[in-house]
Design a protein that fits this description.
alpha+beta; Arc Repressor Mutant, subunit A; nine-stranded mixed beta sheet; three-stranded antiparallel beta sheet; 15 helices; 16 strands; binds adenosine-5'-diphosphate; binds magnesium ion; binds zinc ion
């Protein structure tokens, strides 16, 4: 029997507001620099008699996320108590949403090798993060309440995914979308985004869903992909052996590369959800929602399609450019200037995704910290186009610009990198390379013409990258022909 996997994802993302979800304590990134239990107050420590107040900014960012996911925003939102006991949850319950969550019935478009797919979004709701536990080697644990009460949005997909590739595309697309919206920086090592994967399998061609398992606490793309792949195969093997799948919560053992049972079937009513009596229902005024809709930025996939359509950028490069909104803005600023000078936007894209990315990566800098402005880059592309510098020399110029923030003309002048266009100087270099490499010259004359490329390279090297490659090639060919007896 052939089986098909069915996967639904639950994603928790921190919303980086200034203050926490229900109190005024600052939200601090989990960098380890902030001393534990310093960003706390009676509300997030759950001292008796305190009352929560909803953070308006968190609701606004939540609404924008819901809209970006093509959801309907519920006109009335109700917060709910989700009761459970755990040392990282001082109230003994989490203030979440249940029956009337923030947003429902949306979809997220993803791209896979087999085309575009729409993955349904069942719901997105607001809640609060727990404190952070540090398990010690002696078996005790320490608790840091700085994270307690940080706003979270939980995004629940429909069981619409069928392959690991789709799961990866969904997770990556959602991460980019959240970064575009300014929800958080998508840093999974810091726990800004966490996944839970629900997995089942069913015979191909059947419509009913199989029994699912839920893999908890996946905090990297690698863990997500590997655990889902493992779980699909495990379930298939159980069914092929005539067994049944037990609905349960699983953990992921990274080292062993296996899922393992954590606790058996967990019923929603275990949480004894009921409307939070300390927070009145939130009415989402239609004009407020409309104003927030207007502030949803162009999203990555739409931007990618526009770069392909309006600038003729290849799909692969367009995807690279939109993976950071600031890079896409930088590209568009440069491409607009370049077009006015008859330089193709694709050339601009090549320089950005090639040399510029290399320099930024090596320096661990983001593009907005880069000294090379779109005007700087444009001037360099113009010098290449005009033949003032060779492409090789232009790379050296770019690296120097990156260091000093100079304009290209200043660097070309300072480093003496202007292309040798003077024919006499080039001829001298060509003659020297021919004299120095008699063996390769003989090979060429015997018909092994691909030696020519190597000889061009020698001239380029001798000129320190300043020779014009086209001209060098022509001159070399002429000179070689003259060597024939
Ligand atoms: P719970 O809150 O108990 O986890 P939900 O109904 O909210 O239950 O579902 C959570 C997730 O499980 C959703 O992402 C949904 O798509 C997914 N899901 C539900 N049933 C299945 C199934 N049979 N196979 C795979 N995923 C499923
Ligand atoms: Mg769940
Ligand atoms: Zn607080």
């Amino acid at each position: 029997m052939e089986y098909e996997a069915v996967i639904g994802l639950e994603v928790h993302a921190q919303i980086h507001t200034r203050a926490k979800m229900y109190c005024a304590c600052p939200v601090v990134p989990d960098t380890g620099d902030v001393p534990p239990n310093t960003q706390v107050c009676p509300v997030c420590l759950a001292l008796p008699g305190t009352l929560p107040v909803v953070n308006r900014r968190a609701v606004e960012l939540g609404i924008m996320t819901g809209l970006a996911l093509n959801c309907t925003i519920n006109p009335v939102n109700v917060f709910a108590r989700k009761s459970y006991f755990y040392p990282d949850l001082p109230k003994g319950y989490q203030i979440s949403q249940y029956e009337l969550p923030l947003a429902v019935n949306g979809a997220l478009e993803i791209e896979t090798a087999s085309g575009v797919r729409r993955i349904g979004i069942i719901r997105a709701h607001l809640e609060e993060d727990t404190a952070k536990l540090y398990h010690q080697e002696d078996g005790t644990a320490l608790v840091d309440f700085n994270r307690a009460g940080v706003p979270l949005i939980e995004i629940v997909s429909a069981p619409d995914m069928h392959t690991v590739e789709e799961v990866q595309a969904y997770a990556t697309t959602l991460r980019e979308l959240l970064i575009y919206l300014g929800i958080n920086a998508g840093d999974m090592e810091k726990g800004e985004m966490r996944f839970e994967a629900n997995v089942s399998v069913r015979p191909v061609g059947t419509a009913t869903l199989g029994t699912r398992t839920e893999i908890k606490n996946l905090n990297s793309f690698r863990a997500l992909a590997a655990s889902v792949a493992y779980e699909i195969e495990r379930q298939k093997a159980v069914l092929e052996d005539g067994g049944v799948i037990v609905q349960q919560t699983l953990g992921w053992d990274e080292a062993a590369g296996k899922t393992y049972p954590q606790r058996s079937k967990e019923y929603a009513h275990d949480y004894r959800y009921f409307p939070e009596p300390d927070i009145p229902p939130l009415e989402m005024a239609p004009d407020w929602v409309a104003a927030l809709h207007a502030r949803v930025p162009e999203l990555p996939l739409a931007k990618k399609r526009r770069l392909m359509h309006d600038y003729g950028i290849r799909p692969y490069d367009a995807a690279l450019l939109v993976s950071d909104r600031r890079v896409a803005d930088y590209f568009e600023a440069t491409a607009t200037l370049a077009r006015a000078r008859d330089i193709a936007p694709q050339d601009v894209a090549n320089w950005i995704t090639g040399e510029l990315f290399r320099l930024l990566n090596a320096a661990a800098l983001s593009i907005d910290a880069c000294k090379i402005t779109p005007r700087h880059l444009l001037e360099l592309l113009m010098r290449v186009q005009q033949g003032t510098v060779s492409v090789t020399a232009a790379k050296t110029v770019l690296a120097a610009m990156h260091e000093t923030g100079e304009f290209p003309d200043a660097v070309i002048e300072r480093l003496g990198l202007a292309q040798i266009s003077d024919a006499a100087a080039l001829v001298a270099l060509v003659q020297k390379v021919i004299a120095d490499n008699p063996e390769q010259v003989q090979q060429y004359l015997r018909g092994k013409t691909n030696v020519l490329g190597w000889l061009v390279g020698q001239v380029m090297q001798a000129s320190k990258g300043k020779a014009n490659p086209q001209e060098t090639r022509t001159l070399l060919q002429q000179a070689l022909e003259q060597q024939r007896p």
